[in-house]
Amino acid sequence: MAEGSVSVAEVEASFKKFAIHGDTKATGKEMNGKNFAKICKECHIIDGKNVTTTDVDIVFTKVKAKSARVITFEQFNQALTELAPKRFKGKSKEEALQQVYGLIVGKEPANMGVTKVAKAAAVDRLTDTTKYTGSHKERFDGSGKGKGKSGREDIPDTSGYVSAYKGSGTYDEKVKEA
Fold this sequence. Notes:
mainly alpha; 2 strands
């Protein structure tokens, strides 16, 4: 894993990255339980045998203040000190802690800014405006851009022009004749 000792500053950098993940108001000084579980899962502290998600949740609850919902970096270190001997059995506490630090250093949340749009043939087919028929076809112009309200509602023409009027001359002339 990690040869020699890992600096606490490097671990703190990863702590800050995970602490602000998914929370726009987070400062990076405190981490919630969800992000603590995330850092443990993504850095492979949770191995499914020795350390489980339940263990991580129990340790988080143990180290946080009674009414608090977040932990500081000091409490984070305390939690790692409790998880390290469970993760690396048969090693001294200090050796195990250094190996846990080695797992954490340099990591950052996996899906940070990587939201991808699912592109499937079915979705392409359903959203292709050239294949629309009937009243749906009227809602889009030739380029496939929506017409907005004019494409959804039948707006009456109030210009005064009557398309089916077949008389010669104007209305006033017709009234005089009669």
